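#onboarding

Welcome to the new folks! Below is a worked example of what a typical request in this channel looks like: someone posts a single protein sequence, and someone else replies with the predicted structure as tokens. Don't worry about understanding the tokens yet, we'll cover that in week two.

Example request:
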Amino acid sequence: MKAARHLPMLSHQSHTFIEHVQGAFGPETLRSLRLYLENIQTERQAQTISIREKAAIIRGETSDAIRLDVRWFEPWRTANPTFIKFLQPFSWIAYPVQVRMVREASHLVPWHQDLAYQKALGIRGHRQIITCFTPLDDDPSQRATVEFSRSEVPYLEHKPSAGFAAGIRGQDFGELVHFALRPGDCLAFGDLALHRTHIPVGAQLQRSSIEYRLIQPADALEDKDYFDIESGLFTRKDGTCRERP
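Example response:
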């Protein structure tokens, strides 16, 4: 496991990399977001109106009223500069983010590659993404986390699974690994990295986390908002920038 200051430069061609980034974000900022999420959860989840949102909540995700909150981008305003440099040329985060509150077995995501979810979006999916899984709990090493396969494989066939849009079943994924995360750490990985939700021995199932999807500006979609991790502003493909989307 590498400290953030020792991170190598990322090859933008890498779809299968997995990196445990120590000290990516300020622990106090993440803690304040978790407390904020706990405070707004009941009220904002009650604002759910669509079938899509209700299905997302069943999967341990959150409603639009929560996901659209721009506060989830606060960790990036004081992120470790070495981490920002490492992510280049992936410098735009797709808005909104994925906020998850894992609370029961039905919330555990099956084996998949994130590219499958982009493909499921059709023309609204991105060509290539990097995911930054960021736990918000004070003791992330003692809670459900992400488990990876060390196998580097091409894109695999996915099918809807356990209520999720994409999953892989019935395959041997070889050597598996998960990381003992500390407050402020994150997991950055490519869109072909095989992974799933995992509960380490002795750990709790309950977890709160944010998943950021980063793209290269050249892959931006028309009429979609992104958060620029370098400028701290929301932006679009047409070059417009503003404080809020």
